[in-house]
User: Fold this.
Amino acid sequence: MADLMENVVNLCKRRGFIFPSAEIYGGFRSTYDYGPLGVLMLRNVREAWWKSMVQCRDDVVGLEAAILSPPAVWEASGHLGAGFADLLVECRSCNTRHRQDHLDDPDKCPSCGSTGTFTEPRAFNLMFKTHVGPVASEDAVAYLRPETAQGMFLNFANILQTTRKKPPFGIAQIGKSFRNEITPGNFVFRTREFEQMELEYFVPPDDGPKWYEYWCEQRFNWYVDLGIAPEKLRLRPHDADELSHYSAGTSDVEFEFPFGWGELEGIAQRTDYDLKQHAAASGEKLEYFDQATGERYVPFVIEPAAGATRTMMTFLLAAYSEDEVEGETRTVLRLDPRLAPYKVAVLPLSKKDTLTPLAREVLARLQSNFMTDYDETQSIGRRYRRQDEIGTPFCVTVDFDSLEDKAVTIRDRDSLEQVRVPIDALVTELRDRLTV
Ligand code: ATP
Assistant:
């Protein structure tokens, strides 16, 4: 589909998944707001990640660390140095700025076509700087975190003490990160404010390679399990010159976007770099000590780092399809039910006073179990299409027979199959169909 990206962006706006931020003021530089459906779907993306990374394991615990942090953290982590800066050139002719590593031709401005007009490259640090407290002095400087990872290293000792975990064990966090990206774009693929889902997994040093393989496989499979076709995904090991300053090996899970292959997640072997840096800079011991054996070491870290917002867009792109039903084209999001904003929609056949009380009773029964939509406007066909377009896996129709037989019809988004189910059995029936 040539204009898949455009179709998804339009759908997001039209149906309330994602809006450009501050739109009434003309928008604000590639920032976005998640609308009523987007907020539901983003929660589901987080929930699917959390379930697989935390809930279904006994070796991973959660954390929600602060977003504001002092310069010392970023000096130790390397983010205030050259490692987290992009090289920026400016065109003297049209004054546009470009990332040097993104230029196809290092001499030619992609905006105005001039050649030989670039300034010398200068390092541009990607962190957002601010001041904490009423005085904007140098000692009040703070940064918005550019990744969630450092919070896990800073709390390593706290978590060892409070949970009594021993390597191999992990700390997981979902939250916002901020990077002053020079070239944001491709909708929410690259934004300056975004959300990450990261795990820091601490292992005995010799076991690093084994766990790296393990996490590469686990993370690749997570996307497949949630419905992305494996041929649209690949696991790409970084070349030596691409590796971050701390990494002994990184692979990216990539998806074939309409604009080319792009990263969904990086799985990095961070070695003992971060714990050692913070131990040296803070003077605190950041190591594991086994009281039983007397063994003491600084664990190695494997980090699967994914983006929640980028991944949500990917699930939308992968789910978007158009097919023909009863001679009409329908747009359908074939989202895995776990990701769909609404699991079910209750649709009274017509907006008659006689049907509304029963339809509302069905709604009330479902609402405490599933995220449920209710729609009684327009024709039933139009309402099915509207639910298909936002990926709702099941519609429940309440009709005039329902008043007599106390049963309703469930319609399946993908197979279009319809079955009659007693209202008393509806929750169980839907739960069976939704549980995977
Ligand atoms: P890129 O090469 O795309 O800039 P990165 O390698 O710097 O990404 P990481 O630091 O590994 O990214 O971050 C982990 C994940 O966080 C990425 O795989 C991506 O899903 C997400 N992410 C990073 N930067 C952004 C951004 N600006 N907007 C949206 N998501 C992002």
Q: What stands out?
A: Residues 147, 179, 181, 190-191, 194, 196, 263-266, 305-307, 309-310 surround adenosine-5'-triphosphate (CB under 6 Å). The chain has a mean pLDDT of 95. The chain is about 30% helix and 30% strand.
